[in-house]
Specification:
globular; Gyrase A, domain 2; 3 domains; two-stranded antiparallel sheet; four-stranded antiparallel β-sheet
């Protein structure tokens, strides 16, 4: 079966299990999940959906989210959209339903975090691609190989980061209801070389000062200026006056205010992260690695995205991500212990066997939602494993060996190509690998000894009938499904 046919078959298998095309109000996807707006939630066949070999799990939030895994979801979504597109008036019907769902489930803080994610998450593929190219370029430079090629690779790796403020401004204006290109135009002021000729607050500005935080603030301001102009400027003059005033007013505020303030905040973030890990690295790593899974469950991890991006922009890498990635290691160790503790439970063991490869590569949804969270205690012991792994990496940061990532998104083994630090690459990789091993080991031991009460062990260590999946459905990478809990997971 060709790849196109396989993806079409996956889409075709999912559609009737979510109530058919008539039940779909919206279709979207992120890096790992197919996100569906539903007219009638009761029409969804959860158990049958989880039984599909291509489905890693399901999550309910403001949309019904089907975890398919990275790569697969991007290929299945267009096929799914093509099947659903046969239903007329889908967009209008879905808009009201989606608005009602959001009004019911949203809080102001949760909405703010989701907006932050909507601004920065679309940038992750470029960050990953440029980060890997930067790593490859550094390796070639260290080995003195292909000297005629390395300048070109450096341009590819650095071009996006040099202009990331523009993309942040564009996405911010789009997210807050303004004209995206005006948000990008105002944010472009921050990276324009000519700002070096401008004095503000008694200091000469430098290109890039304020970074992504300044771009975000400038674009938000541009949106409010634009909306004010739309309200008061006569329609006959709107096409000339509104964009001019938007760029002029928000541009002046950016140059003579936001760049300085955002620059101070960005510098403070970088200085604080460096100070924290240099003076309390082990303790900070322990806390961050242990709390990351709960943060993911609450959706609060999204608040870290601008911090990661700011650190990458300032220092070339974020020292926080390798520590937070240890949460995934604790999750893997806990899952292996569960597998060995429940030799009679074929259902859970099949889920773990299929989900472990994704877990090693940093895709945590199948193990979180299919294993540890439904069992309860193993979720806590997975956090313990993440805490010790984070503490290990943090300890070496405290000893002067910074371990960072040149991009955000991947974790687990998938983070190896993106590692960077202030020492040699081999040493950085060794510290990160040892941190993963620590997380695996502690997560396993903690789960083995404290992950099950006698009653829980007796309840789950029983024979389970195999779950039959539709024969015509092809297997996608990642594994089977998982029980249902709630909020938003992320790759860990």
């Amino acid at each position: 079966m060709s790849t196109v046919d396989k993806n079409r078959a996956i889409a075709a298998a999912i559609l009737p299990l979510v109530g058919g095309a008539e039940n779909i109000s919206s279709v979207a996807h992120c890096m790992t999940r197919l996100r569906l707006g539903l007219r009638d939630r009761s029409l969804v066949q959860d158990d049958a959906l989880r039984a599909l070999p291509s489905v890693m799990g399901v999550v309910e939030d403001d949309t019904y989210q089907i975890v398919l895994g990275p790569g697969t979801v991007a290929r299945v979504t267009p096929e799914f959209e093509a099947l659903v597109a046969q239903v007329p008036d889908l967009a209008e019907r879905g808009a009201a339903i989606k608005a009602a769902q959001k009004a019911k489930n949203q809080t102001p803080f949760k909405l703010f975090l989701r907006r932050i994610a909507n601004i920065f998450v679309p940038l992750i593929p470029a960050l990953i691609g440029c980060g890997i190219i930067a790593g490859l370029n550094g390796l070639l430079i260290n080995l003195a190989w292909l000297p005629s090629v390395t300048p070109a690779l450096a341009a590819m790796a650095s071009g996006f980061m040099a202009l990331i403020a523009v993309f942040v401004g564009f996405n911010t204006a789009k997210e807050f209801g303004g004209t995206p290109i005006l948000g990008g135009a105002v944010a472009a002021i921050i990276v324009f070389p000519g700002v070096a000729k401008i004095d503000a607050f008694g200091q000469t500005l430098s290109p890039g000062q304020g970074g992504v935080l300044g771009a975000l603030g400038a674009a938000v301001l541009a949106v409010y200026v634009e909306k004010w102009c739309r309200r008061w400027v006569p329609e006959s003059l709107d096409v000339l006056v509104t964009p001019t005033l938007t760029v002029l007013v928000s541009g002046l505020v950016t140059i003579f205010g936001l760049m300085f303030v955002a620059g101070e905040i960005s510098t403070a973030i970088g200085d604080f992260a460096n100070w924290l890990l240099a003076n309390a690295g082990a303790g900070a790593g322990f806390v961050l690695g242990g709390l990351f899974l709960p943060l993911v469950m609450l959706g609060l991890h999204q608040a870290l995205i601008p911090i990661h991006t700011t650190l990458i922009e300032q220092q070339g890498f974020t020292v926080l991500l390798p520590i937070l990635a240890m949460a995934g290691a604790g999750q893997v160790g806990a899952a292996v212990a569960v597998y060995m503790k429940l030799p009679r439970n074929g259902s859970i063991r099949r889920t773990i066997k299929s989900a472990l490869p994704a877990g090693f590569l940093g895709v945590g949804e199948p193990l979180i939602y299919g294993v540890s969270l439904p069992l309860g205690r193993p979720f806590v012991t997975a956090c313990v494993g993440g805490a010790f792994g984070g503490g290990f990496v943090g300890l070496f940061n405290m000893l002067g060996d910074k371990v960072g990532s040149t991009a955000i998104g991947p974790s687990g083994w998938a983070l190896f190509p993106l590692l960077d630090g202030n020492k040699g690459l081999a040493e950085t990789i060794a510290i990160y690998a040892a941190g993963l091993l620590t997380g695996y080991a502690v997560g396993f031991v903690a789960t083995w000894f404290w992950g099950f009460s006698p009653r829980l062990l007796e309840e789950f260590n029983v024979e389970t009938a195999p779950t039959e999946a539709p024969a015509e459905t092809p297997v996608a990478s990642g594994g089977p499904g998982s029980p249902t809990p709630e909020p938003q997971p992320a790759k860990v």
